[in-house]
Amino acid sequence: MDQADHETRILDAAERLFYARGIQAVGMDELRTAAGVSLKRLYQSFPSKDELVAAYLDRRDERWLSSLRTFVGDGGVIELFAWLVQWFSTEDFRGCAFLNAFGELGGRVSPPVLRHKDRLHALLRELAVREGAPDPDLRADQLLILVDGATVTAMLGRTNAAGAALRLALADVRG
Amino acid sequence: MDQADHETRILDAAERLFYARGIQAVGMDELRTAAGVSLKRLYQSFPSKDELVAAYLDRRDERWLSSLRTFVGDGGVIELFAWLVQWFSTEDFRGCAFLNAFGELGGRVSPPVLRHKDRLHALLRELAVREGAPDPDLRADQLLILVDGATVTAMLGRTNAAGAALRLALADVRG
DNA sequence: TAGCCTAGAGAACGAACGTTCTCCAAGGCA
DNA sequence: TGCCTTGGAGAACGTTCGTTCTCTAGGCTA
Fold first, then answer.
1. Do A159 and A87 form a contact (C-beta atoms < 8 A)?
2. Based on the domain organization, do B32 and B83 belong to the same domain?
3. Percent of chain B with pLDDT over 70
4. What count of CB pairs under 8 Å joins A to B?
5. How many Å apart are A59 CA and D15 C1'?
6. Per-chain mean pLDDT for chain A
């Protein structure tokens, strides 16, 4: 097992634990145990917890956006919110990892969080252009509001959040 | 200065510090200093940090909703989002205290957070009824998505969040 | 005035946690 | 076989933090 394998196992454990229970609630020792890696190797791969957190967020950003992009393909808001419905109903769903991390750590995690939201905004803008929206930037802003709003609302237990948001997205196209 | 005054000063300091920097980032000792109160009295008023956090959230809930309710009065979504615009532009704005607390502490703060969102939902439902919405529950769900979505989006620096959300709210009425 | 109660200041305690260090076993190489 | 390097397990260290304890000063009552 080489260095890359170790990093993958560490990041897998980090994503599972950090997302499920919060970053500050998970210690390096518990993470080490979950990853099945020695503390020495953990610190060789990621010299501090802050760097591990940044790596966790960046990898989650890539995977999350890639999954969404693949699912939506050339589709529109229907596919966008269908993907959200499926995400919200996964067993370990606990809201947006980036918003949670921001609430928890504030400025210390800002760069990965802002990067993530900018990339999501760019994806939504592409969708807006395909839709023929007259003002794609505004439309992307609005879709971002709907996606984030539905996500935090679903996190707190309102199960029809994605459906309600979809109706707003469709209404705006007609309006 | 009696007991109630002390509690007020403690809660004032707690709200300022917890909201600005996060709950876990503020220790009881710093809070004691900011409130100008002895540690003994602090623990007489609030026997543990968890109880102080709950009291902070509950008092913020009351004040926040009361301010919104007063501003909106018998108005509709225009007034609702006008209030948000003003809130977002306050200097110390840092998103929704309840969503941030949830991201930070997860289940440990769930009851006050859920209470707050339920009360906000109820206020939005009243507004939906006044508007003559055909399905006030759905409309309240949607307004909650727009309010929370605009709030987290504004927190991350998109300054026109409230305006973009308002347009969606108006579009749905027309659609 | 003498004794007692209160309250404040901050030292102290115990736990948790990020990070580093020590010890030892195992394996490659002369 | 004997030596040297590598890596794992976990002890140890220093700090932070929530919470409690101690000591002392001041004011009220008899």
1. no
2. no
3. 98
4. 145
5. 31
6. 95
**CATH classification of the domain holding B103:** 1.10.357.10
d(CA A42, C1' D1) / Å: 35
Query: Cα(B14)–Cα(B72) distance, rounded to whole angstroms?
Result: 27
Chain B contacts to A (CB-CB under 8 A): 21-22, 24-25, 94-95, 99-106, 113-114, 117, 138, 141-142, 144-150, 152-153, 155-158, 160-161, 164-165, 167-172, 174-175
Query: Does residue B89 sit in the same domain as residue B29?
Result: no
Shared domain check, B96 and B68 = yes
Q: What angle do CA B103, A115, B85 make, to 5 degrees?
A: 65
Crossing angle of helices B161-174 and A161-174, rounded to 10°: 80
Give the separation between CA B136 and CA A45, rounded to whole angstroms. 53
Interchain CB distance below 8 Å, A114 and B168:
no
Domain check: are A68 and A139 in the same one?
A: yes
Q: Is the whole-model pTM more than 0.70?
A: yes
Residue A94 per-residue DSSP state? -
Spatial CB neighbours of B132, under 8 Å, sequence gap ≥ 6: none
What number is the average pLDDT over the span B3-29? Answer: 94
- Per-residue pLDDT tens digits for A42-88: 999 999 999 999 999 999 999 999 999 999 999 999 999 999 999 99
Q: Which stretch of DSSP H or E encloses residue B43?
A: helix B39-45
B29 Cβ within 7 A of any nucleic strand D atom: yes
Q: Which residues in chain B touch residue A136, judged by CB atoms under 8 angstroms apart?
A: none
Do B60 and B131 reside in the same domain of the chain? Answer: yes
- A11-14: long-range contacts, CB 8 A cutoff, minimum separation 24: A11/A55, A11/A56, A11/A59, A14/A52, A14/A53, A14/A55, A14/A56
| Range(s) of the domain holding residue A83 | 54-174
Integer Rg of chain A from CA:
18
Please give the tally of structural domains in chain B: 2
